[in-house]
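Quick one: structure for this chain?
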Amino acid sequence: MICCSDLGELFLARGELVTARRFLERALQVRQELGAVRMGYVHGSMGSSLLAVARVAEKQGDTVTASRLLHEAIPFAEESREVDVARQIDELLRRIS
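Got it. Here's what it folds into:
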């Protein structure tokens, strides 16, 4: 999960959106399968994982998926009191709305 997330961020930084999305979606899938909603700051959270995939989807022009993922992420960010993640979710939602 962590490796997939890190690789996704690396490919995103390189502008390789298809590969980035594939790794970030896999990281999210593993997190969901494990029920790992929050694993601490270093390993991220469900909210941050959903946000990561939403960012790539938005960059690919897939605003419907991005919006769905962001709305899914809101309760996780609020429950975990992740103010920065919630702020980023809100900013991206405003941009795509």
